[in-house]
Hints:
The structure is a single chain. By secondary structure, this protein is of the alpha/beta class. Helices cover about 45% and strands about 10% of the residues. The protein has helices at about 1-30, 40, 45-60, 80-90, 105-120, 140-150, 165-175, 190-205, 230-240, 295-305, 315-320, 325-350, 385-395, 425-450, and strands at about 65, 135, 155-160, 180, 210-215, 245-250, 270-275, 290, 355-360, 365-370, 395-400, 400, 415-420. Helix 7 (about 165-175) links the parallel strand 3 and strand 4 (about 180).
Amino acid sequence: MVRLFICAWLLATTKNTLTTTAYTSKSKMSDNNIKPSNRATQVESFKVMDVLRRANQLEAEGRTIYHCEVGQPESGAPKTVAQAAVTALTGDANQSRLGYTDAFGLVELREKIAEHYKEKYSLPADKEVGADRIVVTTGSSGGFLLAFTACFDAGDVIAVASSGYPCYRNIGGALGLELANVPINEEFKLTANELRKEIDERKASGKKRIRGVILSSPSNPTGAMLSVTELKDMCELCEKEGIRFLSDEIYHGISYDKEAATALSFSSTAIVINSFSKYYSMSGWRLGWMVLPPDLVDPINTLQQNMFINAPTISQTAAIQCWEPETIAELETHVAKYRKSREFILKQLDSISEIKSIAPADGGFYVYIDLGEELVCRGKGLGSTEMCRMLLEEKGVAFTPGTDFEDPAGNLGDRRFRISYAGGTTVVADAMDHFKDYWPSWVKRVKDAKN
């Protein structure tokens, strides 16, 4: 009897061991199949950050690098903003409470933003913005994610300019949106005329209708700005066609001899996206805002609660100082420096006879150049990407190739490149001196490759 019991116990134990081994083996096989999502692996890198990474590596090796790749202001946050942050961190209990805020952000900050629109843009009474329609976001990037998620479903089509900010495409692609890359015109703009042509062509060919359009004015990378009339026409076309317009206005405040208009003046359905990173020189503070149409207030409130809870409280607290007279006076000195750098770059480029196509650079802090077919030989690997790589390695000058900004289905990305002049007048002057010194060797390489 005892022997039978022992045999039964051994059989059961053996069976359990085999079962456990098989389960463990299957688990290991399953673990071996764990991998990143297709969504993540299909998103393109943000090329300017790749350039920055290599530039930083060279700098760490002791090289002098002239940073003209990223759109990051040379200056830090304004003094009043920085001091407000110090007070919030080191003050008494009432001053240093940095816990959660309302999902939409500090009421005082939102009221300041609302007042800013009233004063700067002289909005008509029926277009005035209340604090209840303003959400403070984790940078403009957080705003893009919230807006795309609230406005569109996977498979929806959104229109973007063929030359534009790459993260529009990349975030949209990650969310399963389909992109309509609309060719810009000869002035490097996407206007209602170009959008209308795309709408008509899609209708005629039976393609999906466009659900949304996002563009920036002033534009990154081109610097081109829509006129007041062009912005009005864009808003009216979008409302007529039932297209949600996302107006990226993060470079407002940085323009040269042209005044920027806001979509809020002409549309009751548009979303306006802005940021403290550019004009307000607070790029690392990760703070932005959106002005919402009434129908999106509740959906975006819910999404913000779940995705971000709230934007960084320390940044919000400090940003309340952004519209103080002392702050604005300091920020306007930055714009004066940008203007000086812009003029210097354009003058230097004008002295290079081979370069003939330059975007308007009406606003922001970028100059965008098209080398044309004459100054590249892509069949031999000599396009703007290689030019920028060689320029960085040989001269320590960091520019960004157009592949970051252009429609990937086209061939203009490897013809164009962007110069950022956010990094200061001295950096720009030295960078352009080195670029002009390098330029003849590039022309010779292309000429030799074509012969």
